[in-house]
Amino acid sequence: MTCSRFLQLPERGALSVFFTAGYPRLGDTLPTLKALQSSGVDMVEVGFPFSDPVADGPTIQESSLVALRNGMTVATLFEQLRGMRAAGVTMPVLLMGYLNPLERFGPERFFESAAACGVDALILPDMPFDDYLARYKRLFASSGLRPVFLVTSRTEEERIRAFDAESPAFIYVLSSDAVTGGKASVTEATEKFFRRLEAMKLSSRLIVGFGVSDRASFQAVTKHTSGAIIGSAFVRAVSGAQTEEDLQKRISTFIEGVR
Amino acid sequence: MRLEASERGFFGEFGGAYVPEMLYPNVKELQERYVEIMGEPSFQAELEALLHDFAGRPTPLFVAKTLSKMCGCEVLLKREDLLHTGAHKVNNTIGQILLAQRLGRTRIIAETGAGQHGVATATVCALMGMPCVVYMGEVDMQRQALNVARMRLLGAEVRGVSSGSKTLKDATNEAMRDWIANPHDTHYIIGSVVGPHPFPDMVARFQSVISRETKEQCHALGGKKPTHVVACVGGGSNAMGAFFHFVEDESVALVGVEAAGCGLSSGRSAATTALGKPGILHGSRTLFMQSEDGQVEEAHSISAGLDYPGIGPQHAHLHVSGRVEYVSVTDEEALVGAKLLARREGIIPALESAHAVAHLRRMELEPSDRVVVVVSGRGDKDMQTYLESFGEGISDDV
């Protein structure tokens, strides 16, 4: 069951990693997933690439373009993920990407294929909440996939509560006003924002992302939240890996550095 | 038909606001306030005064005698090329900077392709004393070096964009990223009828002065309304402005001219209505050129201003509903159009506008027709391209 996989997450300090599917080499998607799991990561976001990722900084843009040049497509991604559960990947796996490739593939087909692969949830940063309610909610419901909603320090409380009511896999808390790959500095204002969220006593977990890159930033942002996502820093760490062995070694070294 | 944005910013099935949460508050604030602010008498007065005194409106509607003879009917040129900064873009930047001031924003960003919108933005920022950052693809910076220098002279910071195709679509991505990082003090002046709601509708309203004047001027020129309005379409802002007050009058034929680049089947084109599919790009649901897998394809046109893989949502709707006829003109045909206007009417048009002129030659017209062609910009910025393309033959007749 999909919901049970999120129950495995620790109450505090959950470490999640984002990587781009088909990067650095087309065939690296499943090996990366497996290596992340052996390194003790709690959850993974697999990015399906888009040519024009407006919410992403240079690192993830570049990895997306490399993946596309490698021949990555939505159909290829589902082929690669089809065997992941049988191959022993037990942690929650989410797909993250922009709406256009999903819509071109066909929304119904996308949700069905993702669910068939054992994907647990989808993060679609450019999906408006209106569209979620009007168009996508029923696909989430029928496929058993769960949504994830992003909130920033400027998201109004009423809106956050509306997200929470949709029983998302978690609430994706943005640490700062920036695209991915920046540097999180937990300022007084950020602390205040995290405390405000904590005080709302939401039923969803709070997982922080954008700007989390190492042990120091991971520990700083997880003080008031359930966990954090590292993306760009991880993508940089595996950039240029030539062999599966090299890839595995880079992954375990990187994760050890954060834990 | 009517062309009004629904509450959520849709024109038929196109439009909307597909932005990440980081931009939601900014976009929502604009959605809630743009109509009200634009309707304020003090805003209207300030806008009208600047359009008149600073930009040089109204622009003439010129009776093009030689072209008229050639086409066998009356041809009128709407002279947006005579505006300050050299193109229609300033109609929108004046409007948006006044809006930004009323929203309390203190910093302006913009994207630019040909550099015309960048120059028009840098110009109003200099006028208002506001800092300005313009994102421009590195390829475009090379082919429009003069406009880069103009922006810098006006005090704007021009940031080269080296991602993707290094042209307008990538500059737009980068400007959106800047807005995400600076949501509190910054207003993003989008240069065309693209982007999340309310930008397409807001920009169309600011550009609608083109058709408002055209209507009045046609009236003054013997009272007959146009039978055709022809304008080039990249994102589509001058065309949207030129069509705006005619959309409801089905007796006026509206023609949008896209860039076919090296030809529709060459793989190097920007003819969105011919080659595009529906999808989501730059914050709205619209038509754009994309791969089977939903990746945005690179556009090509000799004209940097038309070198964009998509069109605004209103145009997508006007195309699908059949209200506007969209055609395309190749790079070569556009060059002929430019020369024609230069040699026969004494007007060197921008390469973008040359596409509209080129289509005029192919239209089947009746002697009783009255065709308005929008000359959206002047050709100064394109002299390098004209020199390279015509070479020794630059003085040869058409």
Report on the structure:
- The complex is a heterodimer of chains A (259) and B (398).
- Helix content of chain A is 46%, strand content 14%.
- Chain A has 12 helices and 8 strands.
- An 8-stranded parallel beta barrel of chain A has the order 1-2-3-4-5-6-7-8, surrounded by 5 helices.
- In chain A, β7, α10 and β8 form a beta-alpha-beta unit.
- With 398 residues, chain B is α/β, with parallel strands linked by helices.
- Chain B has a 6-stranded mixed beta sheet with strand order 3-4-14-9-10-13, with helices on both faces. In chain B, strands 7-6-5-8 form a 4-stranded parallel beta sheet, with helices on both faces. Chain B has a two-stranded antiparallel ribbon with strand order 1-2.
- The interface between A and B is large, with 40 and 34 residues.
Quick overview of this protein structure:
The complex is a heterodimer of chains A (259) and B (398). Chain A is an alpha/beta fold.
Largest interface: A-B, 40 and 34 residues
Neighbour order of strands in the largest sheet of chain A: 1-2-3-4-5-6-7-8
Mean pLDDT of chain A: 94
* SSE sequence of chain A, one letter per element: HEHEHHEHHEHEHEHEHEHH
Oligomer: heterodimer
Structural classification of chain A:
alpha/beta
Number of helices of chain A: 12
Q: Give the fraction of residues assigned to helices of chain B.
A: 40-55%
CATH architecture of chain A: Alpha-Beta Barrel
Task: Determine the N-to-C terminus distance of chain A.
Answer: 28 Å
From the structure above, extract its key features.
heterodimer; A: 259 residues; alpha/beta; TIM Barrel; 8-stranded parallel β-barrel; 12 helices; 46% helix; 14% strand; B: 398 residues; Rossmann fold; 2 domains; 6-stranded mixed beta sheet; 4-stranded parallel beta sheet; globular
